[in-house]
Design goal:
5 strands, alpha/beta, globular
């Protein structure tokens, strides 16, 4: 379960929310808005299972700020990280190469038209696809 850092009124709220999520049996992930510096959330890394880096302001539309993907790389090796906001086919590879373990894509998928697979569609192995997009061999998806 992912919760936004910016909605927590104080450090105790971040810790309490993460603890309650984990107590329910779910993984606790923290989402950070584009303006939030990684240094502000680093003290909570030991309480979290992952970090979701927003590439655009939550609730807005627009082009992903790919410079923010550096935050995903900077969580390693402590936490896995994902990216969200403006991710589409044009920047997916850049997000993965920058260190994102996963990506969230909503509008790009939903506005793509017919999402039904074609009759000749083949299943995609996510680990192999991510490895190809990262430009290397031997990587595995987190």
């Amino acid at each position: 379960m992912t919760f936004p850092f910016e909605s927590c009124p104080d450090p105790a709220a971040v810790a309490d929310t993460a603890e309650r999520i984990r107590a329910s049996g779910a993984a606790a992930w923290l989402a950070v808005a584009p303006a939030t510096e990684l240094a502000a959330v680093r003290p909570y890394f030991e309480l979290l299972d992952g970090l979701l880096v927003m590439l655009i302001e939550p609730g807005s539309t627009g082009t992903a700020d790919l410079t923010l993907t550096a935050k995903a790389e900077q969580t390693r090796p402590v936490l896995p990280a994902g990216v969200d906001g403006g991710v589409d086919a044009g920047n997916l590879a850049a997000c993965l190469r920058a260190g994102a373990d996963y990506v969230v894509s909503g509008r790009a998928l939903l506005s793509a038209g017919d999402l039904a697979p074609s009759p000749d569609a083949r299943p995609v192995d996510a680990a192999s696809y991510a490895d190809t997009m990262r430009g290397g061999a031997g990587h595995t998806c987190g």
